[in-house]
Amino acid sequence: MSVDVKYRTSARATGGRDGKAETLDGNFNVTMATPKELGGAGGEGVNPEQLFAAGYAACFIGAMKFVASQGGPKIPNDMTVTTTVGIGPRSEGGFGLEVELEVSLPGVEKDKAQELVEKAHQVCPYSNATRNNIDVQLTVV
To answer: What is the rounded average pLDDT for all residues in the chain?
Structure first.
């Protein structure tokens, strides 16, 4: 598979889960903190799963807007995607992720909303990157 890349960005992390992360253009700079559930101190800072959840949610909205522009239902301005990312040990060794996407499309009929979400899941780059690697559950609320 080839990709006709239209945009690239770079980020650098130092110190891992208890360090810092920033984009090389300076637009994004965060302090990282390991959650207590993963053996860390918790506290101030974000973790990679939170960043992944936020990125996936925003990207999925973009995918739904794309699908809508191709003849899908009109999507409301107050639509939301809530992404929940879970992490834990895999039975095969190492660690794995699971993802839940909860999509709210106020005013869109449930069957039309479900169809839009399914189509968006086929075009979203995050969905394509995770397909057959991570269990992703889609729910229309």
So the answer is: 96
Nearest Cα residue to 79 out of 125, 51, 47, 112: 112
- pTM of this structure: 0.94
For 4, residues 6+ apart whose C-beta sits below 8 A from its C-beta are none
What's the pLDDT score for residue 1?
74
Residue 123: enclosing H or E segment and its boundaries? helix 110-123
Instruction: Give me the sheet containing 95-104, strands edge to edge.
Output: 80-89, 95-104, 135-140
Report residue 135 CA to chain centroid gap.
13
CA dist., res. 2 & res. 35, Å (int):
37
- Give 43's pLDDT tier (boundaries 50, 70, 90): confident
Return the CA Rg of the chain.
Answer: 17
DSSP-assigned letter for residue 125: H
What integer is the mean pLDDT of 87-116? Answer: 96
